[in-house]
Amino acid sequence: MTRNDSGKTTLNTSYFLGVLTSVAISTAYRPYWTRSASATFKTFGSTIGSDAGINILHEFAPGVRQMIKRRAPKFVSRIEERVANDQTLSDVTTPSK
After folding, report:
1. How far is CA 37 from CA 20, 27, 30, 31, 41, in A?
2. Which residues pair with 3 in a beta bridge?
């Protein structure tokens, strides 16, 4: 879903047409005996599904990461602090170009 120029929520047709076009073009490069409309639409569906999954991951990853950090043993958090400190020190000591 997206918003149009007037601010109303609408279906993002340009996204769907873009994905369908790219899937159709990639299908056109396959040998003729492996091309089919069903394969094209299966790939289209899996692309839409993976994009939706990635969006959900981006939405909820910080909360999941925070929940995992709270339940992690103390030695894991100490290792994480050391790694973060080492990266900070290397950023400070590395000369800029």
Report:
1. 11, 9, 13, 14, 6
2. 9
Question: What are the phi and psi torsion angles at 3 (to 5°)?
Answer: -110, 140
Mean pLDDT, all residues of the chain: 81
| CA 96 distance to own-chain centroid | 31
Q: Taking the model in full, what pTM does it have?
A: 0.58
Please give the angle made by the CA atoms of 94, 79 and 83, to the nearest 5 degrees. Answer: 10
> Residue-wise over 2-30: b if at least 16 C-beta within 10 A, else e?
eeeeeeeeeeeeeeeeebbeebeeebeee
Tokens describing residue 41: 């639409």
Q: What percent of the chain has pLDDT over 90?
A: 16
